[in-house]
Predict the 3D structure of the following.
Amino acid sequence: MVRKALQRELGGNAPTSKIITEADISEVAEGGYFRVTPGSILTPLARETAMMRRITLVEGDEPIPQPAANPESVQAKIVAIGADHGGYPMKEMLKAFISGEGYSILDMGTNSAEAVDYPDYAHPVAEAVAEKRAWRGIIIDGAGIGSAMVANKVPGIRAALCYDQATAVNSREHNDANVLTLGAGLIGDSLAKQIVKIWLTTEFGGGRHARRVNKIMAVERKYTS
């Protein structure tokens, strides 16, 4: 039905195009790759399914990335984490969760629910990532917005506010985000853990995305060089 509806909508040229549906994407192993041949059309549900299952869509003749010969071990990866008073309970919960996944933790505070200012904790996390003292960083405040703004002032940082699984995948696969910000007042612990796990395990897609990330960093260099 979806194929026929799209063919009717797109007119006479549609029958020569391959329509890729959710069923096609679902056949690919989670975290894998799906080549989109020229002229193919992805349904909105197919694209959403790819994002949710961390499937990279490889367009045209772009090469499919090969796994590294000696992938870095999870144990060697340090995650810097920080929060203000609004994010403190979630930070403590996530510390235990992340450690349980095999990562090391670098806790940048705060260490209580006493009122503090989020820039004082977002900045050290971003700085630790920029200086390569940490592999990635996670910052939690009430909404996640202010901490993202602070982190993105640090050269070399690409901080992303994520509020569901799809944004977690997109920020890593498309933008190579190295800092994640979360809003403790907007999401619960269960969703926070899902976002963090997906964000920590999703690889950067490279290809056309690398070209675009390079342009992001070129803008930064324009104002920092």
Q: What stands out?
A: Residues 86 and 154 are 23 Å apart (CA to CA).
